[in-house]
Amino acid sequence: MSETEKVEKEQAEKEADHHPYRRPVDAATLILVDRTAAIPKVLVGKRHDKVVFMPGKFVFPGGRVDKSDNRIPVAAPIPGALEANLLKGSPKITPSRARSLAIAAIREACEETGLCLGRKSNGATPDLEGPWKPFTEAGLLPDPSGLFLIARAITPPGRVRRFDTRFFTADASTITHHVDGVIHADAELVELVWVELGSKPLADLHPMTRNVLNELEKRLASGPLSHDAAVPFFHFYGGKMQKDVLGAA
């Protein structure tokens, strides 16, 4: 067993609550990348020490899909190639569900970090409420056109929380609005840091998140991001993690 496999096994045993089967819920994560320097940087947030899930850990913003995500008006539709990637795999989802996943990634990033991916609307900006209020105040609509799908991962069976997560990435240049006061000592994320790939904060990521980050690093090393690249699918079968490719025969 490799050192990585040992770490993943220990992490799984630590997290395993041996709950009966729970159907995973759809979730989305956004990894923002700054490529203005020789070594790309990614944005991570440090979770509050008192939260239940991964206290004190560095994470990427993300969370479950809300029922309202598909109804939110957008500045531009999700790219057809991105939709095609989201529709790959099983169980099958609808185009509206694919759209919800992309929009959820933008919403969670804005909620948790105060960084919003949006664009001025052509007409009057709808009066959006709740987590979308910062977009209304800035005269923006969420813009998923700059998102790329990096990976999909499903939490192993037996956990108290199970997610079917799509990991997106976007360039930092797509951030068009910053909400002040989101990060503070009593928030879910108490600190935001842009860190170089390979740096120390990234070594303490959850093993699955680290797998996804490794995939992103490979993509970045090969040149500009593209929707044509293979998208890995991490899931568990027979108690072991499997890595497939979405849409592969």
Automatic annotation (TrEMBL):
InterPro entries: NUDIX_hydrolase-like_dom_sf, NUDIX_hydrolase_dom, NUDT19
Residue ranges of the region described as Disordered: 1-21
Superkingdom to which the source organism belongs: Bacteria
UniProt domain Nudix hydrolase: residue ranges: 24-218
Alphabetical list of CDD domains matching this protein: NUDIX_AcylCoAdiphos_Nudt19
Alphabetically ordered keywords of this record: Hydrolase, Magnesium, Manganese, Metal-binding
Stored PANTHER family: ACYL-COENZYME A DIPHOSPHATASE NUDT19, TESTOSTERONE-REGULATED PROTEIN RP2
Molecular function, one GO term: hydrolase activity, acting on acid anhydrides, in phosphorus-containing anhydrides
Protein source organism: Bradyrhizobium erythrophlei
Necessary cofactors: Mg(2+); Mn(2+)
Matching PROSITE patterns: NUDIX
Protein name: Nudix hydrolase domain-containing protein
Record-linked SUPFAM superfamilies: Nudix (SSF55811)
